[in-house]
Amino acid sequence: MTVNELADYLAVKPAWIYNNHRALGIPSRKVGGSLRFRLSEVDRWLDRECPVAA
User: Fold this and answer.
1) pLDDT-derived band at 53, boundaries 50, 70, 90
2) Residue 24 and residue 17: Cα distance in Å, rounded?
3) Is residue 11 a contact partner of residue 27, using CB atoms and an 8 Å limit?
4) Among residues 33, 34, 51, 35, which one has the least CA distance to residue 43?
């Protein structure tokens, strides 16, 4: 996923992704100088970092 696609998925602005991906540990890779994200890794990160309240 691109930064814009992830921002849409998380309902945040792309700038939020750029500003916070390292500090929050959002799993990412650099591909040709651009950040890329795997949806499966982002979903696992969300499950760890934002558990659903029972």
Assistant:
1) low
2) 10
3) no
4) 51
Residue 2: Cβ within 10 Å count: 14
- Alpha-carbon distance of 16 to 14, in angstroms, equals 5
Tokens of 41: 């890794």
Q: Band of the pLDDT at 18, cuts 50, 70, 90?
A: very high
Tokens of 40: 């499966």
Nearest Cα neighbor of 8 from 27, 28, 16 is: 16
* Residue 36 backbone phi and psi in degrees, to 5: -135, 150
Q: Give the N- to C-terminal CA distance of the chain in Å, as an integer.
A: 30
